[in-house]
Amino acid sequence: MFKKSSLFIISGLLVILLSCSTSQNSYRTTVGTGEDQISVVVVQGTPLEMGRAYGRLMKKEIHACMTAYLATAQAALPERFSDANLDAAWNSISPYLSTRFTDELRGLSEGADIDLQTLKRAHAVPVLGDYACSGVAVWGDAVAGDHLYQLRNLDFVKQAHLQDYPVIVIYKPTDGIPHAIVAFAGYIGAHTGMNAEGIVLGEKGESPESEYPFDLDGTHFSTLFRDLLYNAQNLNQVLDTIKSTKLIKRYYLYVSDGKKETQGAAKIRVSSPDPVKLTIWKDNDPTDEMAPNVLKNVIYFTMKNDVAFKMLKENYGKFNAEKMIALSRAVADEGGNLVDVVYDATALEMWVAFAEKDKDASTRPYVHINLKDYLD
């Protein structure tokens, strides 16, 4: 028989071997070329293991991106983004964070050898910040085939140089649905993403500066999105989760389900300071605030709604990826367009453009990524 000490040694070796196996299944590659090259990080395992792998694979970029992002925010608005305010914001949302999220962040800190408190503060900047974006989804009669397309434009400051550290992170968890987020090195919240079930998520910020300081006792959309990407298999599940979640601030959320048997989309207005905190519109809804400019199998709210509606009408029934990219370019906020994504939620494909120095994302090539290529 083995001695107890021998069993401990063997158990330890098994843990190390399993950890090495998981690490070897995580890797880094790229899509695009030249100035339009985007890092793709594929991580596998538990949230802690995926965080460590992500940290190891992008250590240099994570240090540069997260420290510069935090420093830029604090230089621009020293009081709002002070260490004390960021720590208070993190403490407010912490009770609503999943263990998966906090484990991944801890793993990221360990893998990249970066201070965990720095990561927490960087992740609290969007919680205290305000920004504007665009979202559109089309499907059914609005498209040329039987696919669902959604666009997400992130209109945000370029001075923080987030665009210098673009990354698409593809998660293959041991427990949960594989999914991808389009982000910046070291940021694990999701401002947008898609999972292997064809669920696509996007957002538009609507919190005015006049409402600051915000009531932050609840869930920020970026961590809600990660939970949805892990869990949601259809549109109804997404909507049920949103309805049961205590959300903060004001947002528009755009959610889509690309699967042919459950295909559809919804636009959600989150107004947590108001008596009516949640309003959900689906397609062609006469109560939609865009009415009478609504269309069957279309949801939208953008930085340029007149431009969006004109293009939606002119191209109705003909939408494909190329026409969605043209729409994304047309509604982008000139001078402050950081990243744009067009999704084919049915085929699990996406086209991604990041800003380059002072050039808006909408002026750059949209780089193609097929999520299925990374899920085998």
Which characteristics define this entry?
376 residues, alpha+beta, Penicillin V Acylase, Chain A, six-stranded antiparallel sheet, 10 helices, 35% helix, globular, disordered N terminus
Produce a short descriptive summary.
This protein has 376 residues and is an alpha+beta fold. It has helices spanning 4-24, 47-57, 59-76, 83-93, 99-112, 116-128, 221-231, 235-244, 305-314, 321-331, and strands spanning 27-31, 38-45, 132-138, 149-155, 166-173, 179-184, 193-195, 199-205, 250-257, 264-271, 278-281, 298-301, 337-344, 349-354, 367-370.
Describe this structure in words.
With 376 residues, this protein is α+β, with helices and mostly antiparallel strands. It has a single domain (26-374), classed as Penicillin V Acylase, Chain A (4-Layer Sandwich). Helix content is 35%, strand content 25%. The chain has ten helices and 15 strands. The chain has helices spanning 4-24, 47-57, 59-76, 83-93, 99-112, 116-128, 221-231, 235-244, 305-314, 321-331, and strands spanning 27-31, 38-45, 132-138, 149-155, 166-173, 179-184, 193-195, 199-205, 250-257, 264-271, 278-281, 298-301, 337-344, 349-354, 367-370. The strands form two sheets. Strands 1-2-5-6-7-8-9-10-11 form a nine-stranded mixed beta sheet. It has a six-stranded antiparallel beta sheet with strand order 12-3-4-13-14-15, with helices on one face. It is globular and about 50 Å long. The protein starts with a helix and ends in a 6-residue tail after the last strand.
